[in-house]
Design brief:
The structure holds two protein chains of two kinds. By secondary structure, chain A is mainly alpha-helical. Chain A has one domain (2-117, 141-296): ABC transporter involved in vitamin B12 uptake, BtuC. Chain A is 71% helix and 2% strand. Chain A is built from 13 helices and two strands, in the order ααααβαβαααααααα. Chain A has helices at residues 2-31, 39-57, 60-84, 89-108, 134-138, 143-162, 164-174, 176-181, 186-212, 224-234, 239-262, 268-288, 293-296, and strands spanning 122-124, 140-142. By secondary structure, chain B is mainly α. Chain B has a domain at 74-320: ABC transporter involved in vitamin B12 uptake, BtuC (Orthogonal Bundle). Chain B has 16 helices and four strands. Chain B has helices spanning 2-5, 20-44, 49-61, 64-89, 97-112, 119-148, 152-172, 204-221, 223-233, 238-241, 245-272, 283-294, 298-313, 315-320, 327-345, 355-365, and strands spanning 10-14, 196-198, 201-202, 348-352. Chain B has a two-stranded antiparallel sheet with strand order 1-4. Chain B has a two-stranded antiparallel sheet with strand order 2-3. In chain B, α2 packs antiparallel against α15 (327-345) and α5 (97-112) runs antiparallel to α6 (119-148). Chain B is globular, with a radius of gyration of 24 Å. Classes of the chains: A mainly alpha, B mainly alpha.
Chain lengths: 312, 366
């Protein structure tokens, strides 16, 4: 029984990493007031670029970084359309999803189904990995897993909530007009963090094909981009809560695998719908409950392009 | 002359009014731009874009089978586009057309498999059932938007995935056809179907045209449409014209969802006949794209739907040259991105700021 539990929880951590990276990317973007609905396309692009690079170079880190670079490029494109041109964020996001899914499908066709051989070296953390049960679940992974779970969330959390620059970032997402009158360049901050969000999200795709499911096939993203958006809403844009949300939703994926493997009397479809149901529940709570505590933590300017001339 | 090259002498201004003609040409330019970019991509991958385009057009418009397929794709896109445009008219982002479409098919399947009677009568009942199914799926986001101002974007988006999974669950679970007649896991065949008239193209096509006609009449000639647009633009208008904004939000969302559910009804009784995975083929999303391209104009919806159906249909040609069917999504996305940007870009204009202003600036700096 313990073995099964350990295996489920280890899968949870590995599966959740994709969500953590993508959701952190979305958090960066939403914190500065831009909603990016293009995650699914970005993850797909990251995944296919990582696979193609790994076949070409056989270097796993190079593949990881190549995916990041492509993500950054797409992030800059998205940021340019939504922040500089100020086109509708929802539509630009949906088009990014389509562009990513379509482009990755065409360039990945030749390598579809081929197993990726390059893999990250496992780095068990000394002492910590020797703790029974917890050690093998949490502390015996490859570097990107630690990056996703420990390093990035803490860095982003510290940046957002404990630095002056973080205060500027958050003010851009809450009230861009006030931020600008205080001397913060709304456009620059939005450009930077929306683009970086694209980078992180594409890394989630690379993580998916290099660590979790080592092969490329169309539709490999399997809606993870949308679940990541759900995670961000679930976590109210807080990078640390994003980690816990991702673990929770990753657990759902792992339970789905286990349920199928062991013929548990639980519908895998029901498990797959849990992330959406939970998010809906969190989202809709204020409808039935006048206490608006939930909404308070979301940046107020999400989805609204900022025109310097307009005051509202 | 040198002044004109100095970037400080130029300023970007936002125009408040842009003529319909300008927007139309901007959109056309955007679509051409998207086609141009994608032909470069095709060229880079070693194929001839012009030849490929000609082949795609020829296989669609040049054969009976192609036209038939075009009509089959066009029908649901037209209806979902009207559904999306209805919500957009009030400024509501009903991203959940896809989910409401699925719920329409579920409702029709549940009733259609358990009811007996003459085809014509049952089809009328199924139309109503489909509309109710879609409308119910829009009810929760509508209430949340109306009474707690919760963004309908995310709530309708989440409900899409739940609807897709619900169809998956029903098709491989309780409703599964044990005889194994279907290609994939699906429900039993619904025995009531829309009659076919042009090859496999069913009369649902006329349903779509009628719905588009009703939409056109309502949006051009009724006070209802005018009020809706006003309240959508500014909800504070409501009390002055004696209409409750929250009730109107709920009503419009229900109508939008109902039309999406009807699209599901038409698709399942006209084309697929069984409840199965992926029955919508992302028609909900394409409907949204068309509604955006057309800016809610009925004629625009017709042209936009034909255009998107053409693009989708050419996916089959791409497959014959070794590309994935989904490659066509790239073109769709590019078009949507270019058009979305073009609509904002036409509002900007570069203005030459006269020398005097800079003189004043310098004076102030001193």
């Amino acid at each position: 029984m313990t073995d099964i539990l350990i295996s489920i929880l280890t899968t949870t951590i590995i599966a959740g990493g994709v969500l953590v990276l993508a959701a952190l990317g979305e958090t960066l973007s939403e914190r500065v007031g831009v909603m990016n609905l293009g995650l699914e396309g970005l993850i797909s692009m990251g995944a296919v670029i990582a696979v193609l690079t790994s076949f070409a170079t056989d270097n796993v880190w190079l593949s990881f970084m190549a995916a990041g670079l492509v993500g950054l490029a797409l992030g800059i494109l998205f940021a340019f359309t939504t922040v500089v041109i100020r086109a509708n964020q929802i539509l630009c996001g949906l088009s990014l999803t389509f562009i990513g899914l379509g482009f990755s499908a065409s360039i990945g066709n030749s390598v579809a189904g081929r197993p990726v051989t390059a893999e990250f070296e496992l780095i068990p953390i000394p002492y910590l990995s020797e703790i029974p049960v917890l050690g093998s679940i949490l502390f015996s992974h490859s570097l990107p897993v630690y990056l996703a779970y420990f390093f990035l969330p803490l860095v982003i959390y510290f940046l957002f909530f404990h630095t002056r620059h973080g205060l500027n970032i958050r003010s851009v997402g809450e009230n861009p007009a006030s931020a600008e009158s205080a001397g913060v360049s709304v456009m620059t901050i939005r450009m930077i963090y929306v683009s970086l969000g694209g980078l992180l999200t594409a890394l989630a795709g690379a993580y998916l094909t290099l660590i979790f499911i080592p092969t490329w096939s169309e539709g490999i993203t399997g809606g993870r981009g949308w679940i990541a958006i759900a995670v961000v809403i679930f976590a109210r844009c807080n990078p640390v809560k994003v980690v816990f949300g991702s673990i929770l939703f990753g657990l759902v994926t792992a339970l789905g695998f286990a349920a199928q493997a062991m013929n548990w009397p639980i519908s895998p479809t029901f498990l797959s719908s849990l992330p959406y149901l939970l998010t809906l529940l969190v989202l809709l709570t204020p409808t039935f409950n006048a206490n608006e505590k939930f909404l308070k933590n979301m940046p107020a300017a999400i989805g609204r392009p900022y025109y310097r001339e307009e005051r509202n | 002359m040198l002044d004109k090259l100095n970037k400080d002498n130029w300023k970007v201004q936002t125009k408040l009014v842009v003529s319909k003609k300008t927007i139309f040409f901007a959109q056309l330019l955007a679509i051409l731009f998207a086609l141009f970019v994608s032909s470069i991509v095709i060229k880079l991958s070693g194929l001839n874009p012009l030849l490929l385009g000609a082949k795609a057009l020829n296989s669609t418009l040049g054969s009976f089978f192609g036209l038939e397929q075009l009509g089959i794709l066009l029908t649901p896109i037209l209806i979902t586009a009207v559904a999306a445009a209805t919500a957009f008219r009030m400024g509501l982002w009903n991203i959940g057309i896809e989910g409401q479409f699925y719920l329409g098919t579920i409702a029709v399947t549940l009733v259609g498999l358990n009811i007996e009677g003459p085809n014509f009568l049952i089809l009328i009942i199924l139309v109503i059932v489909g509309i109710i199914g879609g409308a119910l799926w829009a009810l929760l986001p509508a209430l949340a938007k109306a009474y707690a101002n919760i963004s309908e974007i995310i709530s309708t988006l989440m409900l899409n995935f739940i609807a897709i999974l619900l169809v998956n669950y029903l098709a491989i679970g309780p409703l599964r056809d044990k005889t194994g007649a279907g290609v994939m896991a699906s429900s039993a065949r619904i025995s009531y179907s829309l009659p076919e008239w042009f090859g496999a193209l069913h009369i649902g096509f006329f349903f779509a045209l009628i719905i588009l006609g009703i939409y056109a009449i309502v949006s051009f000639y009724t006070q209802f449409s005018y009020e809706t647009e006003m309240i959508g633009a500014n909800s504070k208008v409501g009390p002055y014209i004696g209409v409750s904004a929250s009730k109107r939000i709920i009503l419009i969302m229900l109508i939008s969802g109902g039309i999406a559910g009807l699209a599901g009804m038409v698709e399942i009784t006209g084309n697929i006949h069984r409840l199965q995975d992926g029955i919508s083929n992302q028609f909900g999303i394409f409907g949204i794209i068309v509604a955006v391209l057309s800016r809610g104009s009925p004629l625009g919806i017709l042209i936009g739907s034909v255009f998107i159906a053409l693009v989708l249909n050419s996916g089959i040609v791409l497959q014959s040259v070794g590309l994935s069917v989904n490659s066509v999504l790239f073109l769709t996305g590019l078009i949507l991105l270019a058009v979305t940007c073009s609509e904002v870009l036409v509002r900007y204009k570069l203005v030459y700021v006269s020398q005097n202003i800079n003189l004043i600036k310098e004076k102030n700096n001193d």
